[in-house]
UniProtKB/TrEMBL annotation:
Protein name per UniProt: RCC1-like domain-containing protein
A Pfam family: WD40_RLD
Keyword terms of this UniProt record: Repeat
Domain RCC1-like: 22-390
InterPro entries, per database record: RCC1-like_dom, RCC1/BLIP-II, Reg_chr_condens, Ub_ligase/GEF_domain
Gene3D superfamilies: Regulator of chromosome condensation 1/beta-lactamase-inhibitor protein II
Keyword Repeat in annotation: yes
Transmembrane regions: none
Species per Swiss-Prot/TrEMBL record: Ilex paraguariensis (yerba mate)
Zinc keyword on record: no
RCC repeat spans: 20-72, 73-124, 125-176, 180-233, 234-277, 278-339, 340-394
């Protein structure tokens, strides 16, 4: 009987072996793909550069640099570093991931990569920023650039939960249920700070974002000159540069469609939203095929209350598949379906769609990662301006046990 139990235990050990794979593709001429090469990649590349760091829990992809977070709260950065955005104490590019040494004594829980600046949040609620500060986007009260992370003193004892870095601005979400818990700083000329009803050039000190005082915000997003926030009840708010030629919006406005959203992703000219039923919608995006075929999209209703031009559209071509996650680059989009399929569309000039070519795509296309067939395959996608990363967790039959 004892032998039979031992056999059962060994059989269970043979069932599966969980591993994480990290893939990248697209623009790579500044080292942002972590392949060790300064070149674009039109096919997904399986990376080995992270083997000494273990698994990753989160990525954030910026203009041409990437920030990675490990489950223990360690930070790695690579790619373009000429503005100090990598936080390594120098202003040079890095082809390989390197730890941000000045943050080693902190447990980092949230990160964001902007065009040329970076933000890091610790478990104690501290916010650190570095990189290009010429628009005040670092929040230190000046317009200087920094080549290593410095704590933003403005928040003092306030507990920061999230940071979102756009092209020339930043957003911060503070801990709390209601009240003055969303802040903006940096360039505000398109309304992306949401701090004034009038046009302001910039602010180097965090200012309260207006219009969200009675809303519980759970996540924030920034890219290009756009800003967005999701509330606890699934309401999406956007502000900043107008979509599809509509007017700029100077403080948060909610989606008027009768939909509840769980995720949002921003590009330079478009936004993606994921509804709680697994359907994907798009706002704007009439450049480089980033907008799916207008003849096939289904219009819902105007998205912003005082604009008749900004409309939200249902993305076609998914054949009823439920979508689990969305991501957006400058002018390309990506998603993961319920069966683990990765799909991309939009601008393809640098191979960022991962389809083996540089063509634009007007509707979602399936991307293939390698040739193995894992028992369980879950993926998470992250898009930079012209490149894409995928974290894939595979549960495969163990080949080390007989």
């Amino acid at each position: 009987m004892e032998d039979s139990h031992r056999v059962d235990d060994e059989a269970n050990e043979r069932i599966e072996e969980v591993r994480q794979e990290i893939w990248s593709w697209g623009a790579g001429t500044e080292g942002q793909l972590a392949t060790g090469k300064l070149q674009d990649e039109h096919h997904p590349q399986l990376l080995s550069a992270f083997s000494s760091f273990g698994s990753l829990s989160l990525l954030s992809c910026g203009g041409a640099h990437v920030i990675a977070l490990t489950p223990s709260g360690r930070v790695l950065t690579w790619g373009r570093g000429t503005s100090g955005q990598l936080g390594h104490g120098e202003m040079v590019n890095s082809l390989q991931p390197k730890p941000v040494e000045s943050l080693e004594s902190f447990v980092i829980t949230h990160v964001s990569a902007g065009w040329n600046h970076s933000g890091f949040v610790s478990d104690t609620g501290y916010l650190f920023t570095c990189g290009d500060g010429s628009f005040g986007q670092l929040g230190h009260g000046d317009y200087k650039s920094l080549h290593f992370p410095v704590q933003v003193s403005h928040f003092g004892s306030r507990h920061v939960e999230q940071v979102a870095c756009g092209m020339r601005h930043s957003l911060v979400l503070l801990e709390g249920h209601l009240g003055d818990h969303v802040y903006g700083f940096g360039s505000g000329k398109r309304g992306q700070l949401g701090t004034s009803n009038d046009k302001i050039r910039s602010s180097s000190v965090p200012q309260i974002t207006l219009g969200l005082e009675d809303v519980k915000i759970v996540s924030i997003r920034a890219n290009g000159d756009h800003s967005a926030a999701l509330s606890a009840n699934g309401q999406l708010y956007t502000w900043g540069r107008g979509f599809s030629g509509s007017s700029d919006v100077y403080h948060p406005h909610g989606v008027t469609a009768s939909l509840s959203f769980t995720q949002a992703a921003l590009g330079w000219n478009h936004a993606l939203t994921l509804a709680d039923d697994g359907e994907v919608f798009m706002l704007g995006g009439n450049h480089h095929g980033v907008l799916s075929n207008p003849q096939k999209t289904q219009l819902v209703k105007p998205m912003i209350e005082d604009s008749h031009e900004a409309i939200i559209e249902r993305i076609p071509g998914l054949n009823g598949k439920e979508v689990l996650q969305i991501a957006a680059g400058a002018e390309h989009s990506a998603l993961v379906t319920e069966n683990g399929s990765i799909m991309t569309w939009g601008w393809g000039e640098h191979g960022q769609l991962g389809l083996g070519n540089t063509e634009d795509q007007a509707s979602p296309q399936v991307v293939t990662l390698g040739h193995n067939h894992p028992v369980l395959d879950t993926s998470k996608l992250y898009c930079g301006s012209g490149f894409t990363f995928a974290l894939r967790t595979c549960s495969c039959p163990s080949q080390n046990l007989v």
